[in-house]
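Support request from a user on the community tier.

User writes: "When I paste my C-alpha cells into the form, the page sometimes reloads and wipes my input. The last time it worked, I copied everything first. Here is what I submitted, just in case something in the input itself triggers the reload:"
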C-alpha cells in the first residue's frame, strides 16, 4: 500500500498537510517517522476502551506481598547471608546496572535531561554524577567492573552522551558505559484520535515509558552484551532518585537467595493514601495497584497490630534476572500501554503552534513494573525511605518531591551517618558526603575520628 493510502486508511492524512512546504530533508524526516508508526496499534489504543480493570474487586483479594521486613529481628534468610550472597555476585562480576533516564521531566521544568540537574547540596554534582560516584565506589569496594546500561530517549540522548563525553565519563570507564535509546510513541489528540504534529515535518513523539526498557535493551544488543560478559543480574534504578543505593548487596542477595526473578525494594507507606504504587500479592502474583486505583477502604485497612495491611510502597528499585528480561522480550510486546491525559504542544490546521493550557492529548506509556506479575517468583524487600528514596519530580515550591526536598534528605542522611560515627555537626551546618569517600554509615564510622567537629559547610570527597 502506498504511503498516502495508509494515511487515508487510518484517517491520518492531515500529517501530510504541509508537505509542499517541506524541503527534501524534512520530507525524509517526516516519512521516516510515519513509517515507524504501528497504525493498527494506535487505532486499537485510541478506539478501544481501555481494558476496564475492576480495581475494587482486585483490591478485595490483595494481600501483603511476600517480604523481608525491616522490623523483623530475624528475617529468613538473615541479612548477613543476603549481604554475603550479594557481595559474592558483585565480586564475581555478575551484576550490571540499569539506570533509566529517558523521561521528559516535564514537571521539573529543567531545560536539559533531568540527569544533568545539579542536585549536590554543596558540591552541585548532577544526578548523573551522583549515581556515577556511587557506582564507582561499589566497583572499588568489590574490585569488579559493573557495566552501566543507561537508557536515554530521543529527548535526552544527544545531550546525555555529550555530557558524559565532555566530563570524562564522570570517572567511569567509557568501555563499560552503554547508552541505549528507548523508543517513542506518538501523542494523539484526545478528542479525535488524530496524531499530532509538533512541527510541519515532525510528529509529536514522546518516550514510550520506562516499560520501553525491555524492547530497547534487546534492540540495542544490551542483553547480548550482558550475557557475554557473564552478567546474571541487573540492578534497576531511575535517574531522578539521588538516594537510590545502586547495586546494594543486600537487595541483590535476597533476590538470589529467594530465587526471585524480579525483586522490588519498597518502603513502608507513611499513611494510607500516600501517592505511591501499592505493591501487593493477588492470587500469588506480586503486582502494583496505583494509589489512584486503590479504593480507600482497602488502602486504610489495618492488620491486627494496627499497621496498614497494604503497607508496601513502590520506589522503582528492582533487581532482575537477565534471563527473566530475555524471556520478557517476546512477552513485553504484550505489556499494556497506559494512557495519560497530558498537555502536548502541537500545530493547528493553519500551521500555528498551540501551547495548550489544559490537557489536550493522550500519551501512551509502558511501565516497567507491569513485568512483576509475569515473574515466576517475585519478592519485596523493605528499606528505610530516609535512606533510599528522595525523588526529584517537581520544581521547587511544590509540596513534595522537589530538588530542595531531595537535598534536605541527602544532608539529613549524611548528618545521621556522621553523628552515628561520633562526629558532631554544628546546628545549621551542612555536610555532604560523596560515596567515593564513604558509601554508608559504617564506612563513615571507619573513616571519621570520633569527636570530629564540623563547624562550617563541608564536602567530603
Ligand atoms: P517519571 O514517570 O517520573 O517521568 O519517570 P519523568 O520524565 O521523570 O517526569 P515527568 O512525568 O515528565 O514530569 C520516572 C523515571 O523513569 C524514567 C525517567 O527518566 C525517570 O528516571 N523514564 C520515564 C524513562 O526512562 N522513560 C520514559 O519513557 C519515562
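"...and here is what came back when it finally went through:"
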Amino acid at each position: 500500500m502506498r504511503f498516502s493510502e495508509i494515511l487515508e486508511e487510518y484517517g491520518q492524512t492531515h500529517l501530510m498537510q504541509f508537505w509542499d512546504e517541506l524541503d527534501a530533508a524534512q520530507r525524509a524526516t517526516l516519512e521516516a517517522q510515519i513509517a515507524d508508526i504501528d497504525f493498527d496499534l494506535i487505532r486499537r489504543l485510541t478506539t478501544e476502551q481501555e481494558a476496564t480493570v475492576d480495581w475494587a474487586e482486585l483490591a478485595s483479594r490483595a494481600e501483603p506481598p511476600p517480604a523481608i521486613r525491616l522490623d523483623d529481628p530475624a528475617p529468613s534468610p538473615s541479612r548477613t547471608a543476603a549481604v554475603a550472597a550479594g557481595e559474592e555476585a558483585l565480586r564475581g562480576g555478575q551484576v550490571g546496572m540499569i539506570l533509566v533516564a529517558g523521561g521528559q521531566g516535564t514537571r521539573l521544568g529543567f531545560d536539559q535531561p533531568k540527569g544533568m540537574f545539579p542536585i549536590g547540596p554543596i558540591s552541585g554534582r548532577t544526578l548523573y554524577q551522583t549515581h556515577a560516584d556511587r557506582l564507582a565506589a561499589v566497583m572499588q569496594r568489590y574490585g569488579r567492573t559493573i557495566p552501566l546500561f543507561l537508557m536515554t530517549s530521543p529527548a535526552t540522548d544527544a545531550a546525555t552522551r555529550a555530557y558524559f563525553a565532555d566530563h570524562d565519563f564522570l570517572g567511569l570507564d567509557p568501555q563499560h558505559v552503554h547508552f541505549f535509546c528507548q523508543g517513542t510513541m506518538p501523542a494523539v489528540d484526545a478528542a479525535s484520535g488524530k496524531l499530532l504534529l509538533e512541527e510541519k515535518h515532525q510528529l509529536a513523539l514522546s518516550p514510550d515509558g520506562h516499560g520501553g526498557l525491555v524492547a530497547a535493551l534487546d534492540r540495542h544488543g544490551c542483553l547480548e552484551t550482558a550475557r557475554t560478559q557473564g552478567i546474571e543480574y541487573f540492578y534497576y534504578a531511575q535517574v531522578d532518585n539521588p538516594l537510590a543505593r545502586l547495586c546494594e548487596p543486600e537487595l541483590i542477595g535476597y533476590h538470589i537467595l529467594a530465587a526471585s526473578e524480579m525483586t522490588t525494594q519498597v518502603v513502608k507507606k507513611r499513611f494510607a493514601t500516600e501517592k505511591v504504587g501499592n505493591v501487593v500479592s493477588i492470587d500469588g502474583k506480586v503486582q502494583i495497584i496505583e494509589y489512584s486505583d486503590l479504593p480507600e477502604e482497602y488502602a486504610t485497612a489495618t492488620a491486627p497490630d494496627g499497621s496498614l495491611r497494604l503497607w508496601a510502597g513502590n520506589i522503582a528499585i528492582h533487581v532482575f534476572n537477565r534471563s527473566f528480561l530475555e524471556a520478557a522480550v517476546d512477552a513485553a510486546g504484550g505489556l499494556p500501554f497506559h494512557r495519560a491525559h497530558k498537555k502536548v504542544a502541537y500545530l493547528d490546521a493553519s500551521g500555528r503552534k498551540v501551547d495548550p493550557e489544559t490537557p489536550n492529548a493522550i500519551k501512551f506509556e509502558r511501565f516497567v513494573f507491569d513485568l512483576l506479575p509475569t515473574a515466576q517468583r517475585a519478592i519485596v524487600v523493605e528499606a528505610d525511605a530516609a535512606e533510599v528514596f528522595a525523588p526529584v519530580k517537581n520544581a521547587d515550591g511544590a509540596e513534595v518531591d522537589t530538588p530542595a526536598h531531595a537535598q534536605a534528605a541527602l544532608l539529613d542522611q549524611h548528618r545521621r551517618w556522621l553523628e552515628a560515627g561520633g562526629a558532631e555537626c554544628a546546628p545549621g551546618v551542612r555536610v555532604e558526603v560523596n560515596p567515593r569517600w564513604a558509601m554508608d554509615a559504617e564506612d563513615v564510622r571507619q573513616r571519621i575520628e570520633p569527636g570530629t567537629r564540623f563547624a562550617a559547610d563541608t564536602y567530603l570527597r
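Agent notes: The reload is a front-end session timeout and is unrelated to the input. Residues 403-420 form the longest helix (18 residues). The pocket of uridine 5'-triphosphate is lined by residues 100-107, 114, 151, 153, 182, 207-210, 212, 238-240, 365, 393 (CB under 6 Å). Escalated to web team.
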